[in-house]
From TrEMBL:
BP terms from Gene Ontology: NAD+ biosynthetic process via the salvage pathway; response to oxidative stress
Alphabetic keyword roster: Cytoplasm, Ligase, Magnesium, Manganese, Metal-binding, Phosphoprotein, Pyridine nucleotide biosynthesis, Transferase
CDD domains: NAPRTase_A
Cofactors named for this entry: Mg(2+); Mn(2+)
Pfam families, per database record: NAPRTase_C, NAPRTase_N
UniProt-recorded name of the protein: Nicotinate phosphoribosyltransferase
Protein family per UniProt: Belongs to the NAPRTase family.
Extent of the signal sequence: none
Subcellular location: Cytoplasm, Cytosol
Amino acid sequence: MAAEWDAEGRAAARPLLTDYYQATMALGYWRAGRALDPAEFELFFRRCPFGGSFALAAGLRDCMRFLRTFRLLDADVQFLASMLPPDTDPAFFKHLRALDCSGVTVRALPEGSLAFPGVPLLQVSGPLLLVQLLETPLLCLVSYASLVATNAARLRLIAGPDKRLLELGLRRAQGPDGGLTASTYSYLGGFDSSSNVLAGQLRGVPMAGTLAHSFITSFSGNEVPPDPMLAPAAGKGPRVDLVARVKLWLERVCAHLGLGLQEPHLGEQAAFVAYALAFPRAFQGLLDTYSVRRSGLPNFLAVALALGELGYRAVGVRLDSGDLLQQAQEIRRVFRTTAAQFQVPWLEAVPIAVSNNIDEKELARLAQEGSEVNVIGIGTSVVTCPQQPSLGCVYKLVSVGGQPRMKLTEDPEKQTLPGSKAAFRLLGSDGSLLMDLLQLAEEPPPQAGQELRVWPRGAQEPCTVRPAQVEPLLRLWLRLGELCEPLPSLSESRAFAQQSLSRLSPAHRRLQSPALYQVALSEKLRALVDSLSAGGLL
């Protein structure tokens, strides 16, 4: 395989971003003469996160980058040699140095797919030693990406389709890699943009941002702009002294609002003017540095109206403290009265953005009918997933040499499903989701209109179902190290995720006490499970 040594591929995960026991098992396979045995692993989760009934599959693009750049460097092999027994056969390290993924095949759910417990997110097949080594990096790439995407999808469902959601959790994320992953996959899950510049550069995530209180508090009001002159937006006409125009507008605004001219903070006014001179087409105000009603709002209005005279339109205001819902309603009221007073109708619709440790409960409050909030910035609650910090994905061996393998354990929940499998989604005549079906890959695929006898997981008895439509779930993405089709762009996967979520029934979409979505086994797969559980010989 011709490896693609792009920087982002190496950054996604390196071969040694793994657990030590992967290396010790690799040596064990080598010594047993089993390094090249054909094997298949499945990556899946056991329970839906956050007490919900669904997850979104994510991280596939990163996995493909990782697999196509996978190669142990000399320094990697030398380090492993220093950690393994000193009498290890040098041929083992030569084998490691030659490893790439030219013998690896991957089937997976497309990014943005609805995913349910036990249904593989990835199926990885290839030489046993190699696909064992891939376990930890693939889990690392898929688990958090899927968790964040699902968390973002929940927040989008709460917010509804019309509120703009801004992810701004980079400074709260678990390290730089976590920050980039969170910004990428919160966008896939339904957020509109991110404050993360690197996510914009590397992943094409739309960027957005306002300004910080430090910018405002850095001004005292004594500063003189090097060039206070601003040309009209249309480019025609004389340049205008913006500082002077703002002072005139502030007198009129304060009279309208019943404020003394001395009440608005001069440093805040100077900060707003400086920002407006730098971004006349994208002026926005952070209103709560000193006092929203007595300073931030009148200063913003004075600058916005001065810009408006020149044909520019302010793009928004932001609140970062206090009762966000109540303040947004009061600000909208002031916008409307001011728009009427000065006959500037565009002012009524200036977007109001809010932030400040917004969680699901506060988001529901901000999204209620009658809320005047347009943009909601969420950081900690999306990137750290505080309700559940891990999806708990696992990567389990299901076959070696074409023979099924099964983990029994003392905990029935941790039993695995043996054999190479296919997965299908069964739908009703109205397109509603009935259940997902797992069966052995050797079985003929189910057909629309066919009556199927299946075993829902956890049930003691089978049931019958007659799907009106059948959709195969797992697509072939990588065959012997080569991509089988172009990967969708991040924006395409985002659109697919929203389409996928729209197919959920209200009972399954419900975030509190949702109905559980069924995953069932074919009769043949169930019989194999029973045989191996009873200790039957293959």
